[in-house]
Amino acid sequence: MTRKLSFLWLSVVFILSVLFLAACSDDQDASSTDSDNGEESGSEEPVTLSFFSADGVEKSFDDPVAQKITEKTGVKLELDYPVGGNDEAIPLMIASGDYPDLIFAKGDIGKLIEAGGVIKLDEMIEEKGDNLKAMYGDQIDRLRNSLEDPSIYTVGTNPVETAYWETSGTFQVQLDVLRELGYPEITTLDDLEKALTEYYEKYPEIDGQKTLPLSLLGSDWRWLITVGNPAGFAAGIQDDGQWAVDDETGETTYKFLLPEFKEYFKWLNGMNDKGLLDPESFTHTYDTYISKISAGRVLAIADQNWDFADADKALIADGKEWRTYAPLPVTISEDQTSQALKDYGFSGGWGIAISSTSEHQERAFEFLDWMASEEAQILINWGVEGENYDMVDGKRVMQEDDLERMQSDADYGKETGVGFYVHPFPRWGNGAVDSNGQSITPQNEQQIIDSFTDAENEVLAEYEMENWVDWFPKTEDLGISDHGAAYNYTIESGSDLEIIQQKADDLTQQRITQAILGDPADFDATWDAMIQELEDMNIDQANEAMTQKTQDTMELWGTN
Fold it and tell me: Signal peptide position in this chain (predicted)?
């Protein structure tokens, strides 16, 4: 009897041992699988994902919105940005083979794809990208890389639904100039020059400092947005970077070859010759440029809103509302139509990629997919309920302090996180509404109108307008771009197109600067010599290659 009981006991122990070892083996397998997939399932500690962004400013991921993101996703971001606009960051990554988990490379994404530094996202989007699929809908093909490689490597950056309640990048003139001159109509370069000349003659100094009728920033990469791009806006051409595109045929031309651009820069040359252009426009630093605007002594600029936003806030904080700016629909002549409110559709193109060396690829993708969710979109745009906004009668309403800081405090986004993580992550866009029919961003048109200063409202009333966009040709009248925007195209690293464009960009920045600052008598000769140099470097070959890219894009998107 005892032997039978002993045998029975040993049998039970043996069976339990086998079950225990099997369970341990399963746990080890699961642990191994989690490790292979970069998962840390069951861990109470959040996973840290390194994230390099070619845009932005250095900061830690610890503001209230960031903390909420971590709470919802179990992910912390270790943020890294290139110092001083360094454009060698991606090539250095490729050379070392050392990649962060997430990468926003802008135009260098092609180099990463070619180097095998980033992964394809198609399978994960199909299997677990419900939020991304809902966000992009039938426009998801616009994320695809090319006809030859129609894979998806990136998500994010460009908004899917855009409402055009604001303009950016066009000429802007001080409100006081408009008031002092009796609210003139300013729609052409000649109109603008006349207004600046008249005001400058009346007020050669502002607050004891020399008045600067027009200031640009052509000493660094901002040459593109304060010198090159405004020429296209004045020419009535949509923003395609360094290119001009015929949206019907797809024919694409290096834009500085067009006669309208010569006409624009000849006008700038005349402005310089007359002493109306800041003589330091091509030598001063960004900080000096912003300092001049912040002092209220720059009458007009041609710049993107985000580039001089800190100066604008400083002016308001200093009680200098009349020294802030009104955007103008200025073109070379009445023959052109401002494209400032042009609808580009969803442009696809640049976005955030997941690196091929990341140990957390699944987790990184799940994070990006969550950022495309309604919950995330409300959080990153509005902030934390009760801290940044309140629910009033079932609607989100920004708190007064936050509204004021948005307008006047340059550090608001960095400190609170509100709006800071919109770019370059997946985003619905300011034209989207949530499941309750409310705007997904606080920047709806009424909020924009409500945020205008007393000075702005006074000027708008004089022109019988409610919003600055009332000045511009309407979005619905300008049509939707069939090719998106050419600056979003991926140009293959080391290709003839990349090499020719880089040479052309370096040449035109140098020669056009010389033409603007030179003697008006020499302008035509300087310009003609530049055109010849472009032709000698086979710019026609680049035109043909970009035309093919445009036509391929339209075929890929089904818009041709």
Answer: 1-25
Q: Which amino acid does the sequence have at 11?
A: S
Of 332, 165, 132, 324, nearest in space to 232 by CA: 332
d(Cα 66, Cα 421) in Å, to the nearest integer? Answer: 8
Whole-number Å distance between alpha carbons of 395 and 379 = 14
Contacts of residue 116, Cβ cutoff 8 Å, sequence gap at least 6: 356
**pLDDT band at residue 356 under the 50/70/90 scheme:** very high
Q: Which stretches of 74-121 are DSSP H helices?
A: 89-96, 109-115
Please give, one letter per residue, the 3-state secondary structure of 498-560: HHHHHHHHHHHHHHHHHHHHCCHHHHHHHHHHHHHHHHHCCHHHHHHHHHHHHHHHHHHHCCC
> Both tokens of residue 195?
């207004």
Secondary structure in 3-state letters for 387-417 = CCEEEECCEEEECHHHHHHHHHCCCHHHHHC
Output the six-digit token pair for 420: 């800071």
Rounded-to-integer distance, Cα 101 and Cα 118, Å: 9
Strand pairing partners for 253?
244
Tallying the residues shown for the chain, one arrives at: 560
- 24: pLDDT strictly greater than 50: no
User: Nearest CA to 438 among 511, 377, 370?
Assistant: 377
**Rounded CA separation 456/466 (Å):** 10
Q: In what helix (H) or strand (E) does residue 322 lie, and over which residues does it extend?
A: none
508-516 mean pLDDT? 98
Whole-angstrom distance, CA of residue 104 vs CA of residue 81: 10
DSSP class of 342: -
- Relative to beta strand 47-53, strand 102-104 is parallel
User: 């794809």: which residue's tokens?
Assistant: 113
Q: With bands split at pLDDT 50, 70 and 90, how would you rate the model's confidence at 85?
A: low
Question: Of 516, 469, 436, 476, nearest to 340 (Cα)?
Answer: 469
User: What's the mean per-residue pLDDT of the chain?
Assistant: 91
Helix (H, G, I), strand (E, B) or coil at 363: helix
Q: Fill in the amino acid letter for 110.
A: G
Strands 205-206 and 171-174, by their bridges, are unpaired
In this prediction, residues 343-357 reach a mean pLDDT of 92
Q: At how many degrees (to 10) do helices 64-73 and 361-371 cross? A: 120
115, with CB counted inside 10 A (0-12, 13-18, 19+), is middle
Give the tokens for residue 321.
């509302």
pLDDT, residue 84, reads: 57
Exposure letters 30-46 (e unless 16+ CB within 10 A, then b): eeeebeeebbbeeeeee
Give Dmax (Cα) for the chain.
120
DSSP label at 182? T
Cα 8 from chain centroid (whole Å): 73
